[in-house]
Specification:
binds zinc ion, about 280 residues, alpha/beta, single chain
């Protein structure tokens, strides 16, 4: 497979040939940065962990050059950080038993440029080779520009692919904005309470990010716990750990759907729910 950047890489933890590893994929996570998938796509990793018939492949679109740094990493250059973050992502791929992890190695400005077609071409090549049944990516209401750009490039790439390469499900998940605000009937709810140790291990390998002064590991486990407890106000918790997503599959199946209007629909339904309760309780 020919990817655009000479520094791109398809890492296969068990050492088998890349094309063979990719072809085994059933679940795929596509994110902007090293560590995003372990935060947002843990459901897919968990679905495949230890299973003979399911395999997870990760795709990281950016090179991770611009991340904040502190502690033992304080004097690292952008180039040093790229190396460290790639090693960390490989550690996660080993811990999570991924079939493969693809590093596309783009600078974030290239990803944020809608005119740049290279990212989409790379994504199409990977999806053709892997034919995932389920894809997890960033939600379109995320507040990080690069995250939203990756989700948009992915949707465009999928729309350009023949239907036989479309995943059965495309989910937008939580990193830089949770989805607690989405009406319950609009949420896709992923129960991820199994293998809590694995969740902690996957988040813990990204030392350069956590040492940068951000406890993503604690925050992510806390968000999942909060999602579970605050999901239903009546009755006892049915799970100790939930990740929320929104279903982006219709945007792929029907390319005529306007992406902005689709996301606006979630916001409108949220607004209507808040207004309805306020009105009801004011009578
Ligand atoms: Zn990110």
């Amino acid at each position: 497979m020919q990817l655009h950047n000479p520094t791109s890489e398809i890492y296969v933890p068990d050492g088998s040939p890349a094309e063979k590893a990719l072809a085994k994929t059933t679940h795929m996570g596509i994110s902007a940065h090293q560590d995003d998938l372990e935060i947002m796509a843990f459901h897919g990793i968990l679905e495949c962990f230890g299973k003979a018939d399911k395999q997870f492949t990760g795709v990281t679109v950016t090179n991770g050059a611009g991340s904040p740094r502190d502690d033992i990493y304080a004097k690292y250059t952008d180039e040093d950080m790229q190396k460290v973050r790639r090693v960390e992502q490989k550690k996660a791929a080993v811990v999570g038993e991924y079939a493969a992890h693809v590093f596309l190695d783009y600078g974030s400005s290239a990803v944020k440029s809608a005119a740049n077609k290279d990212v989409g071409e790379d994504l199409k090549a990977i999806i053709r080779a892997a034919k995932p049944k389920v894809i997890y990516t960033h939600n379109l209401a995320d507040k990080h520009d690069t995250h939203v750009a990756v989700a948009l490039r992915l949707i465009r790439a999928l729309r350009e692919l023949p239907k036989e390469f479309h995943p059965g499900h495309l989910y937008g998940c939580e990193v830089w904005r949770d989805l607690d605000w989405v009406n319950d009937e609009d949420k896709v709810v992923f129960n991820v309470e199994a293998h809590e140790n694995l969740a902690a291990a996957l988040l813990g390998v990204f030392d350069s990010q956590i040492c940068g002064g951000k406890r993503y590991d604690l925050a992510t486990m806390g968000r999942r716990r909060a999602n579970a407890t605050y999901f239903a106000s009546h009755g006892v918790d049915e799970s100790t750990s939930l990740i929320f997503g929104i279903d982006l599959t219709p945007l792929v199946q029907d390319p005529s759907l306007d992406i902005l209007k689709y996301v606006q629909g979630y916001i409108d339904r949220f607004q209507a729910e808040v207004a309805q309760r306020l009105t009801k309780m004011s009578r």
